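so the lab meeting is tmrw and i was supposed to have these ready like two days ago... anyway. pasting both below. for each one the top line is the aa sequence and the line under it is the structure tokens. i havent really looked at them closely yet so no promises
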Amino acid sequence: MTDDQRNDNRPTPYDDSYPSCERTQAELRVYTGDMDPEWVSQRLGVQPSSQQRSGERKVNSLGRERIVKRSAWFLSSEGKSSSRDLRRHLDWLLEMIEPSASQLGELQTIPGITMYVTCIWWSAKGQGGPTLWPEHMRRLAELNLECQFDIAFFGEDDDD
């Protein structure tokens, strides 16, 4: 039995079109202190979506240059799921990292390393919001991962 079938009685079943959402993603962020972010890839056996090293020069989409202050390793669901249901993005992210749960736990004990999951959610209509099921919260808790939300509510255009 799939999660979709087991949870048909939920007030908010999976909905890949999630009408109140314009776009969403979930990302594991690991700030590595003095360690090279590549070390995280080696420990977890997972390649990051991106990484940065302290002292690197980065140019943003506006052409502004900055110097990276903190080394970090990022694993993002962006481009991995077309769903606008945040739970699908969390499912993908958790499936990627749960096989390395013990290594993730070891990394969490190293001084200077911090990590958390951030969920980015853009509202399509200026109302509504993402839903998490207890299963998602349990899985995050078992990995000892804090979950943060970055939510933007732009609302509908008033030009009509």
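ok protien two:
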Amino acid sequence: MLVSIAAIPVAVAASLILGRWRIRRGVVPADATRTAWTEVGIVATTVPWIWMILTPLAGPGRVYLIPFVDLENQFQHEPLWLLMQIGGNLLVFAGFGFLAPIRWPIGIGWVIVTAGLASASVESLQYLLHLGRVASVDDVLVNTIGAGLAAACSLRLVVPVARPARWVDMYIDGV
């Protein structure tokens, strides 16, 4: 918790420094600021989740390759545990999903593909590195859904305001 709180000033400073550096290199100030904040935001909202997911646990790991088997097992637990598992998996790539369309002229399709590939990579690493964790195709699905929902919110609420009008059609029309 203390590390998370201490990281906030570092992220703010990194965004300011990166934005100013880009302005000095000739980037339009509004674009320099937007890209700096979104890039640092993507890292700051995704890396802690990946760090946690790749932290080893004691005990043997498990693998679920058949869709919805792991999710069905999760519904056998108490509601708070279920909320933490599914809610956490929805949030893993949500920061990326929300901020990527603000940073780049991409649509929800690219966010979903990128988050799906990243999530599959993380789940594969959990298995290959023998971290004592559950590697599950359901985690990939839920991580990807979280990124897609966040991208949909971003594309409808933020992107039309944050980006110049010439980009709006690319965002709304798709990939």
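from a quick look at the 2nd one: Residues 167-175 have pLDDT under 50 and may be disordered. Strands lie at 62-64, 134-136. will dig more after coffe
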